[in-house]
Amino acid sequence: MLHVHYSSPLDLTPAFFCKSCEVIQPPHEGISYFNILECDCTFTLDTHRLQKKYLQLQRLLHPDNFSQKSEIEQGYSESQSALVNKAYETLLKPLSRGLYMLELQGLNIGEGTDSAVNSELLMELMEINEALDAVQTPQEANEIGQDTKGKLANLTEQIDSALNKGELQTAKALLTKMKYFANIEEKVKEKLSSYM
């Protein structure tokens, strides 16, 4: 009798190459990005390790290495390389990493993430944005930047804790909040570069 083993994306290990003949394989659907890049499935993952693994895989899988191979192998290399890129881009940034972790837990992230924003937060964001518009010196922009960095660090801890406890709706609301503060951080960077 055939036993079908249903494994979750986190149980699977990607096989980029055949173990016996070392020929590149097609990408395996349903493997988690964490497994592709061999890193812990945690919100506070080690991004240096992530980067190292990404570069190592891209050296192995890059289509340039397969220009002398068959068309099929060239195609597999392009697909594998694109998948590794997508996995890396998703896991590198805390926001996309957190949303991806929620998806792995079965919580579909629709467009409706903004409904979690309460009026108190909207007021706070409005005030920060107004202060940023009124900034006259790099020092003033820097102050807002440092303050935002602190808020993002605090949110990272809260999101990590919510995900560890399986409180997915809380994590989703906190990630929405993180999105807004990450936007402010970007605006601060733009402001500071305008003083260069």
UniProtKB/TrEMBL annotation:
GO terms for cellular component: mitochondrion. PROSITE patterns: DNAJ_2. InterPro entries: DnaJ_domain, HscB, HscB_C_sf, HscB_oligo_C, J_dom_sf. It is found in: Cytoplasm; Mitochondrion. One of its GO terms (biological process) is protein complex oligomerization. Keywords: Chaperone, Cytoplasm, Mitochondrion. SUPFAM superfamilies: Chaperone J-domain, HSC20 (HSCB), C-terminal oligomerisation domain. Residues 32-104 form the J domain. Pfam families: HSCB_C (PF07743). HAMAP family: HscB (MF_00682). Belongs to the HscB family. PANTHER family: IRON-SULFUR CLUSTER CO-CHAPERONE PROTEIN HSCB. This is J domain-containing protein. It comes from Knipowitschia caucasica.
